[in-house]
Amino acid sequence: MTAVETATGLGPASGSPSAVRSAAPWRALLRPGLIVPLLVLLIALAWAVAPGLFTSQSPTETVAPALQAPSAEHWFGTDATGRDLFSRVVHGASQSISAALLAVFVGFAFGTLIGVSAGAVGGWIDDVFMRLVEVLLAIPTLLLSLSVVILLGFGTANAAIAVGVTSVAVFARLSRSQVMSVRASEFVEAAYGSGGTFFSVLRRHVIPNSLTPVIALAALQLGSAILQISTLGFLGYGAPPPTPEWGLLIAEGRNYVATAWWLTTLPGLVVVLIVVATNRLSQAISSGGRS
What is the rounded CA–CA span in Å between residue 159 and residue 106? Predict the structure, then answer.
């Protein structure tokens, strides 16, 4: 059922087209074409939660001669100090993915709060919040994230917060536009006419019907956050060595591109695969199951 309540007498039946449309974005995730992206993300999440299930090698200790090419024993080869690169990539998932999730949460929580407040209340609150959003949008993303992480200090958590701050404006603009669109709907007017208060209509009608595009954006921002956090790690603003983190792994191998291509190529491919998978799932959610 959509957000039109049964109490108003206007809610669609469970089998109605409106109810089908509200569930379509989630059923879209079950399409055969999304099996591979889902599998990629599930593996990445499993790496982050239980890396020991995928590798028994230590990510920080020397286990073999340096700069060994990929082999059956060391799938991604070894780095310049003899550490198993596959183990470092797997263990690095906990750093990179948890940081990306934190970044998306920061952007989603604060951006949606700002956007919903601006779109629902309007007036001077809308003007003030949207001017703040325009200021954030006027600053280049990398420059803003670097400024925040320098202000907060280096480290993965601070890098995640910095990346989250850069996405607040995007979430705010989208959620505001969705709320304003839903507010103008006939079922919202009917809810007010049947005695609904501002907060009850907002909570039970407006917000639920505005969330699907915002959730799709959150999925898209997850991939973007992984890229941005990896960029900060590559520049040295993320986790300090020898902590395994995807951006740091790529940075450590940049001096060996000609002689040990796997040090940058394989971690980079992992990042690309995960970002593409999140983008594909985001498109499926936002399209509501359409091809």
Answer: 12
Residues with Cβ < 8 Å from 119, sequence gap 6 or more?
126, 175, 176, 177, 178, 179, 180, 183
CB distance 217 to 170 below 8 Å: yes
**Is 274 buried (19+), middle (13-18) or exposed (0-12) by CB count in 10 A?**
buried
What's the start-to-end Cα distance of the chain, in Å? 23
Give tens-digit pLDDT for 54-109.
Answer: 998 889 899 889 999 999 999 999 999 999 999 999 999 999 999 999 999 999 99
Per the CB < 8 A criterion, the answer to whether 54 and 90 are in contact is yes
Secondary element (H or E) of residue 93: helix 85-121
Query: Helix (H, G, I), strand (E, B), or coil: what is residue 84?
Result: strand
C-alpha to C-alpha distance for 191 and 3, rounded to whole angstroms: 10
Identity at 281, one-letter amino acid code: L
**187 within a domain of the structure (yes/no):** yes
Say how far apart CA 93 and CA 89 lie, in whole Å: 7
* Distance between CA atoms of residues 278 and 66, nearest Å: 34
Per-residue b/e over 32-71, b at no fewer than 16 CB within 10 Å? eebeebbebbebbeebbeebeeebebebeeebbeebbebe
Residue 232 lies in a domain: yes
pLDDT tens digits for range 257-290: 889 999 999 999 999 999 999 888 878 777 654 4
- Domain harbouring 210, CATH code: 1.10.3720.10
* Secondary structure of residue 78 in the 3-state scheme: strand
This prediction has a pTM of: 0.81
Looking at the 3D structure of the chain, how many domains does it have?
1
Is residue 124, in this structure, part of any structural domain at all?
A: yes
